[in-house]
Amino acid sequence: MMIPARIASLLREPLLHFLLAGGLVFAIMQGRPADVGDRRIVVDAAVVGGIIEHHVRAFRRVPTAAELDDLIRNHVRTEIYYREALALGLDRDDDAVKKRLRNKMLAIAAARAEAQVPRDADLQALLDRDPARYARPARYWLEQRFVGDDTPASRAAAAATLAALNRGAAPALAAPALPLPARLAAAPADELAMQFGDNFAAALAGLPTGRWAGPVASGFGLHLVRIDRREAPPPSRLADVRQRLENDWRRAAIARAEAEDLKALMARYDVVIEPVR
């Protein structure tokens, strides 16, 4: 383990050597011999280095001598309680303990997968299998009119307003008007989803161009929409979506590693599921 210079300097302090000795004396004072198997608790420089690094990560500073003394004593207490709890079998039939240990086993498999580096060929194959997933969003040039809340009365009003708009009329917006733009140019579908909601953005793909249509539901209510232009972007290249591809590839690699580990572990067990009567 690499220890930063400030931590390494602290580990060389004579005071720390006193604290280490104090930690060992504390363990001995619990009434257990300090040199017999699991009854031996050793707080050496590596352990103290880990304690200090954990404190630095949490608080962005090296602990004071007094804080370090308390941290070492707490480490010894934790070790003692942990070992005594295991000796008493308190870990058995405890769902919380089982789940935590299960997650640690999964983390071992995940760590191996996360250390792998995908090749460009792997990422390209992932992109080729599902190009729609990595496609950039379509862009829209459109006009919208807010009709009102999504109610039967509003839907009836929307039908009349739609007919008027397609005849060339320009009815006023519903009152009270919302602070929404009446016209949008080159608006990506994902930005429209953030502004109006996912359902609104998804519905645009099925609307005709050049005439009013709807009503289209949004997070605000009902709208009538006229799409003047819809532009589909060119297919994504590997360089455009590399990070997304790497994230998906690594998630799949972790899932495979966990499945392979579980299969290997299950082969060591004889699982019997008895019928419940």
Q: What is the CATH topology assignment of the domain at 137-231? A: Chitinase A, domain 3
- Gap between N and C termini: 55 Å
Q: Quick one: biggest sheet? A: 4 strands, antiparallel
Unreliable parts: 17-37
Mean pLDDT: 80
Strand content: 5-15%
How would you sum up the global shape?
Answer: elongated
Number of strands: 4
Instruction: Estimate the helix proportion, in percent.
Output: 40-55%
Give the CATH class of the domain at 137-231.
Alpha Beta
Structural class: alpha+beta
The total of helices stands at 10
Task: Work out the radius of gyration.
Answer: 32 Å
The CATH architecture of the domain at 137-231 can be named as: Roll
What order do the SSEs take from the amino end to the carboxyl end, as H and E? HHHHHHEHEHHEEH
Spatial strand sequence of the major β-sheet: 2-1-4-3
Account of the 3D structure:
The chain has helices at 5-11, 14-28, 45-59, 65-87, 95-114, 120-129, 152-166, 189-196, 198-204, 242-266, and strands spanning 139-148, 183-188, 212-217, 222-231. With 277 residues, it is α+β, with helices and mostly antiparallel strands. Among the domains are: 5-92; 137-231, Chitinase A, domain 3, CATH 3.10.50. A hairpin with a 4-residue loop joins β3 and β4. α5 crosses α10 and α8 (189-196) crosses α9 (198-204). The longest helix has 25 residues, at 242-266.
